[in-house]
Amino acid sequence: PRYRVGSDYDQSGAKTLLTSQSFSGGIISRFNQIRTAREELNLYRIIDRVYTIQGLTWSPNGNQLAFTSNPDVFPGYAYLITVNQEGKFGAPKDLWVLNRLDFDNHQYLNWSPRDDRLAFLSRPFGGPESKGGYFNIFVAAIDGSQFAQLSHVRRLPESVVEPVWSPDAEFVAIAVTVPHNGVGIAASDGSKVTWLTEETVREFPPIGFSLSTLRPNLASVAPAWYPDGSAVLFLVTLQGDQPTSLYRVNRDGSGLIRLVDSNVYSPAISPDGTRIAYITFEEPNRRVGKIIIADANARNPKEIVRMERSVLEILNPLLLRDLSWSPDGTRLAFAANPNGNMDLFVVNADGTELRNITGWPGDEIAPRWRPRR
Question: SS3 of 141, please?
Answer without folding.
Answer: coil
